[in-house]
Write a structure and sequence with these properties.
single chain, 17 strands, 28% helix
Length: 425
């Protein structure tokens, strides 16, 4: 096999930092290979050869000699970290009203919530240290807190540019007044767990038939001007054949739904024992399946210029009268890297809601018509391919701009939630 580059990773059993290599097979698959002195050798597919790996990852520099040798043990942002903070995750509860088969946060613990005043202080600290980031309120299930609107209001007052709610949406659907309180407090974005268009998918992943309640949550948010981004966890053999139907549903729900943020399943936190051996779903396989099922050209998908290119993709489209999606990017890959601030503003433009406006009147300029269409008839598809103990590439970790606030420290998302494969249920 061809050696592409050397990097560092961790043993998936003991999490000890170890050397690793990216190697390409004759078929174009890329494997992350590593060996632990105590637990032996490991190999994990990180690319299936559905797109050109070299072209996709062009411009990503390898780890400098001697870098990454202590990551991620005791991780917090250090001088070796290459990217500023774009978004910060703040966990507001461990409680949850579901017991999902897959949960990166292993939510559901019935532990006392962090006091509201402590969370307000955390939001103020985040705003001061990170230059007005996008704050993601997460859990557990954040809406189990009755005081969440007060936290949203405090975070905006402290200087967080945007506030996003990561939620399963059940309380929003069942209690529209609670959703209205969040909107009035200044909530900008609803990141809605939404795995597909069939109840069988929710039964398999979430343990209940939730589709109608999910759709009701979208209706409630749309009426309040809250932008909704659908967030499916994509699991091979469960919903990887439903991607085109999900895109069609999102198109029908514009402009209440602003986009879909696909998350190929990662194996940290809670997941079925042994699932990582059969359900590994790579970023290029996701793009390939989306292209085939939704009729989207592969050239429309562009890698991140803020995080590492292997961390995700983005693509923006206009909905045409015939129901097709016209790429706004034109397949043009912008040169260089963008800052965390630029990335945050791009995300906010694509995902935020707002009051509905009337279609342009006759005689309106073409530019104003285009702006209306971008606001009301556009859809963003994006993805974040989180890393776990099997596929962790510390080269990628050094470029992470999604950070978790943990007792006064900022930690890369995949470092914070990293757990040994042996901890699976």
């Amino acid at each position: 096999m061809e050696l592409l580059r050397k990097t560092r990773s961790v043993c998936p059993v003991c999490l000890q930092n170890v050397p690793a290599e990216l190697r390409r097979t004759a078929e174009g698959r890329v494997l992350l290979q590593k060996s632990c002195p105590e637990h032996g050798a490991f190999s994990c597919a990180v690319w299936q050869g559905k797109a050109d790996f070299g072209a996709w990852s062009a411009g990503s520099a390898p780890l400098p000699a001697g870098a990454g040798e202590t990551c991620p043990a005791g991780c917090g942002l250090c001088p070796q970290h290459e990217t500023d903070t774009c978004c910060v995750v703040l966990e507001v509860t461990r409680r949850c009203n579901l017991r999902c088969r897959y949960c990166f946060a292993d939510g559901g613990a019935q532990t006392p919530d962090v006091p509201l005043e402590t969370l307000k202080a955390a939001a103020a600290d985040i705003a001061a240290r990170c230059g007005g980031p996008l704050l993601q309120l997460s859990g557990g299930e954040p809406t189990l807190r009755d005081d969440l609107p007060e936290l949203v209001r405090a975070a905006k007052a402290a200087g967080c540019s945007y506030v996003q709610l990561n939620t399963n949406g059940l309380r929003l659907a069942r209690e529209p007044a609670y959703a209205a309180a969040l909107a009035e407090a200044g909530l900008d974005i609803v990141f809605l767990q939404f795995d597909g268009t069939k109840n069988e998918i929710y039964q398999a992943l979430r343990g209940a038939a939730l589709l109608e309640e999910k759709l009701e949550a979208i209706r409630v948010c749309a009426a309040l001007g809250l932008g909704v981004t659908l967030v499916p966890t994509v699991v091979r053999g469960v919903n990887d054949d439903d991607l085109g139907a999900l895109v069609d549903l999102a198109k029908s729900l514009l402009p209440g739904v602003r986009g879909i943020h696909f998350q190929p399943v990662s194996f940290f936190g809670r997941f079925p024992a042994g699932a990582e051996n059969s359900e590994r779903y790579t970023l290029d396989a996701l793009m390939w399946d989306l292209s085939r099922q939704a009729g989207i050209p592969m050239e429309a998908f562009l890698p991140s210029r803020c995080d590492h290119p292997l961390c995700g993709f983005h693509a923006a489209f206009l909905l045409e009268a015939d129901g097709s999606l016209q790429p706004l990017s034109g397949g043009a890959r912008a040169p260089g890297r963008c800052s965390a601030r630029e990335n945050r503003e791009y995300v906010a433009r694509r995902w935020r809601g707002g009051p509905a406006t009337s279609p342009p009147e006759e005689g309106t300029s073409d530019f104003d018509r285009f702006l209306y269409r971008v606001r009301h008839e556009s859809l963003t598809l994006s993805s974040m391919a989180f890393q776990d103990a099997e596929n962790l590439n510390i080269e990628r970790l050094h470029r992470c701009s999604l950070h978790v606030y943990d007792a006064g420290r900022l930690k890369p998302f995949c470092a914070h939630y990293l757990s040994p494969i042996s901890q699976a249920e």
